[in-house]
């Protein structure tokens, strides 16, 4: 049912003035230039993930884990920037999600560096490369790189994944 909701949200995605204000509270001009290269549906998804974190994760609880609330929200806004070079439209995503589930990730072997399959599985790595050039710290970069790598566990990744999966 969550996938159906995600599909509908993707089809009808639009960026509002409220979304723009939210983004402006967290990103500088250079970060926004990167972010705005995303298709509107990926941009809206990222804003929804970040806003969900902002709304549901208290600063006090995050501080207890020696984390920074603003950095977590910023990472949520930027977590999918690796998709900018090879965007996946709503049909691409739907097909890849289905094929991924049907083949139990075996479609991964058909991905070459420029394919949509590659981006589906490796947009975290591509986002890491994009942001690494911009001078982000190692921890932030590793969050972007590993937001779909469930073998790595830490509180920051857990928070991002929780809201990424919901949106």
TrEMBL record:
- Alphabetized Gene3D superfamilies for the sequence: Hypothetical protein af1432
Q: Which CDD domains match?
A: HDc
Pfam name, any one = HD
First and last residue of the signal peptide: none
SUPFAM superfamilies attached here? Answer: HD-domain/PDEase-like
Q: What region holds the HD domain?
A: 44-152
Under the heading NCBIfam families, the entry gives:
HDIG
The protein in question is named: HD domain-containing protein
List the top taxonomic levels of the source. Answer: Bacteria, Bacillati, Bacillota, Clostridia, Eubacteriales
């Amino acid at each position: 049912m969550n996938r159906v909701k995600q599909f509908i949200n993707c089809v009808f995605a639009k960026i509002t003035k409220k979304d723009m204000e939210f983004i402006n509270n967290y990103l500088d001009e250079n970060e926004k230039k990167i972010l705005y290269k995303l298709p509107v549906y990926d941009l809206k998804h990222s804003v929804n993930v970040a806003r969900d974190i902002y709304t549901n994760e208290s600063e006090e609880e995050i501080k207890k884990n020696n984390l920074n609330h603003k950095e977590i929200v910023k990472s949520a806004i930027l977590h999918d920037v690796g998709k900018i070079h090879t965007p996946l439209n709503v049909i691409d995503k739907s097909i890849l999600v289905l094929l991924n589930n049907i083949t139990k990730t075996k479609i991964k072997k058909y991905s070459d560096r420029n394919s949509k399959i590659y981006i589906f599985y490796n947009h975290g790595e591509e986002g890491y490369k994009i942001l690494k050039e911009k001078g982000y710290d190692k921890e932030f970069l590793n969050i972007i790189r590993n937001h779909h790598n469930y073998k790595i566990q830490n509180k920051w990744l857990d928070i991002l994944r929780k809201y990424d999966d919901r949106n």
